[in-house]
Design goal:
Layout: E1 12-21, E2 26-35, E3 38-43, E4 64-67, E5 72-75, E6 77-82, H1 95-99, E7 104-110, H2 118-126, E8 132-138, H3 160-169, E9 174-181, H4 193-205, E10 209-213, H5 220-224, E11 232-234, E12 245-246, E13 249-250, H6 252-259, E14 263-265, H7 275-283, H8 307-316, H9 321-327, H10 330-335, E15 353-366, E16 372-386, E17 389-390
Parallel strand pairs: 1-4, 1-5, 6-7, 7-8, 8-9, 9-10, 10-11, 11-14
Antiparallel strand pairs: 1-2, 2-3, 5-15, 12-13, 15-16, 16-17
Length: 407
């Protein structure tokens, strides 16, 4: 499996790992060859294209090598729900500080910015991060800047026309629309109106909607009835009221929503993942469509930690490794409409990779409501590679022509 770019030595070779790429159906022991920041070869042995370093002038740095023997090589992880607008929202954490050690190469900001703050988000966060940062635009003009005050209690701040304009002016980074549907503290007494306005923006721009649930202002069926195929319910396993569980079972409306094409995302967070709810859902065959962290300033220090920890919790719950990897690579890439460019190691794709170990060791996992589980496997990231460049390695000499963030 080779493509263009094999007319000379490779910039990077990740050698001897089990390449696990659900999007391409690849599960084999292969070398991954990278040139100009993209995957150009997947072969059993790329030794012939490895160039040694030379001290001659001008110097040749040779091919960078990563030994992935006895490890697993996956596409770079995509965290569909995190908060990274540092300096504006107190709930945020810097994207690079967590991505660099966790295999995450793409972070989706879940509503940090609204129509009035998206340009600042571009300058302060997108352009200053080595991580690829994309966004769901908040229905509130100010996004989550008021946190912990609720952003949707004043309907004057939920300007549909402003939201539509912001989406159309930022198509390279805005992937959808976000709304938080929590009664009182977030939406005040506005009931379903914030959701209706968010749907109006999403309808007008042809983008998906991400709806945060937890202490919803109305029974969950009424909220789900307003969503469309491709929309996302985030915090799907929260243990708070008016969510997916009713009378000890998954609400019939949740099953109907999934059958209609609505998607369900984990978004663990500091207060949004409950093993009891997960047990009920999984017992009814209701696994999440995507696994994300809801990483922020409260959850990063404890409970969530990072995406591999959240992934490990689903291994503990019985989800096969191949499905866990799918939920953080191919699935979220498709959800955000970037399946043609992200979430795969197919030849020609951007060389975003995670090199991981699945360690056989006992580990105690904690949910957001005090529940605990003990698992026997845990995912540990050995290397994060962003656009063909190992995160903790030195950047290559400019003469090699490798870009840190190719399109």
């Amino acid at each position: 499996m080779s493509g263009d770019g094999l007319d000379g030595p490779l910039d990077l070779v990740v050698r001897g790992g089990r390449v696990l790429d659900p999007a391409s159906g690849i599960d084999a022991r292969l070398d991954v060859g990278v040139r100009y920041g993209r995957v150009v070869a997947l072969e059993p042995d790329l030794s012939a294209l490895i160039a040694p370093a030379q001290a001659a002038y001008p110097p040749n740095l040779g091919t960078a090598l990563i030994d992935a023997t006895d490890r697993i090589v996956t596409p770079g992880f995509i965290d569909l729900h995190a908060h990274v607008y540092t300096g504006v929202c107190g709930l945020s954490v810097p994207a690079d500080e967590t991505s660099s050690r966790s295999g995450v190469t793409t972070v989706i900001s879940a509503g940090d910015a609204g129509a009035n703050t998206i340009e600042g988000f571009r300058r302060l966060t997108v352009q200053s991060s080595r991580t690829r940062v994309l966004a769901f635009l908040h229905v509130s003009n100010v996004g989550l800047a008021p946190w912990p005050a609720g952003e949707s209690r004043d309907l004057d701040m939920l300007d549909v026309e402003a939201g539509i304009r912001a989406v159309r002016e930022n198509p390279d980074i805005v992937l959808g629309v976000k709304v938080r549907m929590t009664e009182g503290s977030v939406v005040g007494d506005n009931g379903l109106e914030p959701l209706r306005r968010a749907v109006a923006i999403a309808d007008a721009t042809g983008l998906p909607l991400m709806m945060h649930i937890g202490f919803c202002p109305r029974p969950i069926g009424e909220l789900l009835a307003l969503l469309r195929p491709g929309d996302i319910v985030t915090h799907c396993f929260t243990g708070s009221s008016n969510t997916l569980v009713e009378d000890g079972h998954l609400a019939a409306a949740a099953h109907r929503a999934r059958a209609s094409g609505i998607l369900f995302d984990v978004a663990h967070g500091f207060g949004s993942f409950d093993y009891r709810v997960a047990d009920i859902a999984i017992g009814e065959g209701f696994w999440p469509d995507t696994i994300s962290t809801d990483l922020h300033s409260l959850s990063a220090a404890e409970i969530v930690i990072d995406l591999p920890t959240t992934m490990s919790k689903f291994l503990c719950l019985g989800m096969p490794l191949e499905d866990v990897v799918d939920r953080v690579t191919a699935r979220p890439a498709a959800v955000i409409g970037r399946g043609a460019t992200l979430g795969s190691l197919a030849v020609g794709r951007i060389a975003d990779m995670a090199v991981i170990d699945v360690e056989e060791r006992e580990q105690r996992f904690v949910d957001s409501f005090g529940g605990t589980r003990t698992g026997t496997r845990a995912i540990r990231v050995a290397h994060t590679i962003r656009a063909g460049i190992p995160w903790f390695g030195p950047l290559p000499h400019p003469g090699r022509g490798v870009s840190v963030r190719p399109d």
